[in-house]
Specification:
This protein has a single domain, classed as Aminopeptidase, CATH 3.40.630. It contains 5 helices and 8 strands, in the order ββααβββαβαβαβ. An 8-stranded mixed beta sheet has the order 1-2-3-4-5-6-8-7. The protein is α+β, with helices and mostly antiparallel strands. It is globular, with a radius of gyration of 16 Å. The structure holds coenzyme A. Coenzyme A (COA) binds at residues 38, 43-44, 90-92, 97-103, 123, 125-127, 129-130, 133.
Length: 170
């Protein structure tokens, strides 16, 4: 199993670190809980356990350093085409917002995308200012490749999407 990457992190004057790694089967319950906390508030699309199991290899998690490695955040990189991937389902435990876990997660997904050879990543989001920190820029929905809309057909917001489309070239 690949070693988790340690991400230096400073909080309240104490230096600690998060662990960032690919998701495992045992993480799915916590990932579902975190994602659906925001989904209930209409901030993200809901995910079932089945949806996460089926796409588990897309997901990475941020964990704490404790022996159990509690899941603090999760997010996914989903490949669409030879040079295109989506960053999706990025969510930080609501009790732990603003402490760098979201940044650690997105940086990990961006590293993964570069390693795989992805040329362009996109995100649909309500938090454009957060994603602009990583180089994402806003684009018109109509500028997104048609392939992307395969997934949108299954979305409850199809035809009334109010999320902001953003793209980054890697
Ligand atoms: C958006 C989210 C992932 C950010 O995670 P986080 O761990 O709180 O973010 P970080 O601590 O890494 O923040 C890094 C920086 O981004 C900023 N930031 C965090 N959330 C932000 C937001 N919603 N809008 C704008 N800036 C934001 C922080 O202020 C911080 O800036 P600073 O370093 O200048 O203080 C998290 O709030 C979340 O899970 N939100 C709900 C789900 C969601 O909308 N996910 C995106 C789906 S596409």
């Amino acid at each position: 199993m690949a070693e988790a990457e340690a991400v230096p992190h400073v909080e309240a004057g104490e230096v600690g670190s998060y662990r960032v790694r690919k998701a495992r089967l045992g993480d799915v319950g916590e990932m579902c809980r975190i994602i659906n906390h925001y989904a209930e508030r209409q901030l993200m699309l809901p995910k079932t356990h089945l949806q996460i199991y089926e796409n588990l290899r897309d997901y990475s998690v941020v964990t704490d350093e404790g022996p159990a490695g509690a899941v603090l955040a999760c997010g996914a990189l989903h490949i669409y085409w030879e040079d295109l991937a989506e960053v999706r389902a990025v969510a930080v435990d609501p009790a732990l917002g603003g402490r760098g876990a979201g940044t650690a997660l997105v940086e990990k997904l961006m590293r993964e995308a570069r390693e795989i050879g992805i040329g362009k990543a996109f995100v649909f989001t309500y938090v454009p200012d957060f994603f602009s920190r990583f180089g994402f820029v806003e684009v018109e929905h109509s500028a997104m490749p048609l392939k992307v809309y395969n997934e949108c057909f299954h979305c409850p917001k199809f035809n009334k999407c109010d999320e902001i489309a953003m793209v980054v070239h890697l």
